[in-house]
Amino acid sequence: MADRPEQPRETSESEVQWRTAGDRIQTLLDSCAAGGTAAYERAQQLVREVVGLYGAGLDRIVQMGDPGLTERLATDDLVASLLLVHGLHPHDVHRRVSDALDRVRPYLGSHGGDVDLLEIVDGDTVRLAFAGSCKSCPSSAVTLELAVEDAVRAAAPEISTIEVVAAQPASEPSVIPAESLLAHVHSNGSTVHANGSSWHPLPELAELEPGDVGGFLVSGTTVVVCRVGDLPLAYVDHCPVCDDSLAGAQLRETLLGCPRCGTQFDIVHAGAGPDGAHLAPLPLLLRDGVPSVALAEPTGARS
């Protein structure tokens, strides 16, 4: 694999810092509880006043700007999240969910899948239908669900339930619980999903060039990332044919070759190999502008 710089870019570190602000504020509030009920309540009131002040400032900015200003502000992930908190976002929930699904469709397509927005019920329940997912690779179905769940939660934090209907006539709808309270303010790092997976920011992935293959150690797991054009794709560092590492693998167009057994895997089709062999795909998305990968947490680490 190509050697990559170990240090993330400075701008990306700044992004991660602001994305974790919600978690740090909550930690500080919790620590105030040690000073007694009165101290804790004063700290909560202080946070509410500061949030209200900045909300009023954002409102003034929107009101004083030209009609297209709010639209332009909404294209920035961080500013859009603040607009959502203060009820200033220019788009309704249906538009935001639709746009979010459009943004992840190229990634879904890389795993042979797609998703359709069926309806939004009572303003807080989204019904989706998956189509064309890779039937021979169960981990691909998990990646699609994680990608869609994350996109919807970030774009529409008021959504409390996501009902995912598989595109199979005999299947029953499955319900994915989605956290709704300020989900867009929390960090990329430790959002744990119902299946035990959590997201880990990898800003250094932005350094990969088209055709590059990079290896990264993430939370104890070695991850192989390949960039095909503008699309980065992540897999667990394991060849299912020779049961060895993919270290040293090279990418030729869309085929990743194992340097030990020579097996070729189609990385834009969920890592499909010969005779039903598959690489193990991992969700890899831009979360609040930072490339992030989702990994299953060790059993002992789950609460």
UniProtKB/TrEMBL annotation:
Biological process, per Gene Ontology: iron-sulfur cluster assembly
GO molecular function terms attached to this record: 2 iron, 2 sulfur cluster binding; iron ion binding; monooxygenase activity; oxidoreductase activity, acting on paired donors, with incorporation or reduction of molecular oxygen
Keywords, in A-Z order: 2Fe-2S, Iron, Iron-sulfur, Metal-binding
Classification via InterPro entries: FSCA_dom_sf, NIF_FeS_clus_asmbl_NifU_C, Rieske_2Fe-2S, Rieske_2Fe-2S_sf
Residue ranges of domain Rieske in the record: 200-293
PANTHER family cross-referenced by the UniProt entry: IRON-SULFUR CLUSTER SCAFFOLD PROTEIN NFU-RELATED (PTHR11178)
Protein role: May be involved in the formation or repair of [Fe-S] clusters present in iron-sulfur proteins.
Protein name: Rieske domain-containing protein
Organism whose genome encodes this protein: Mycobacterium florentinum
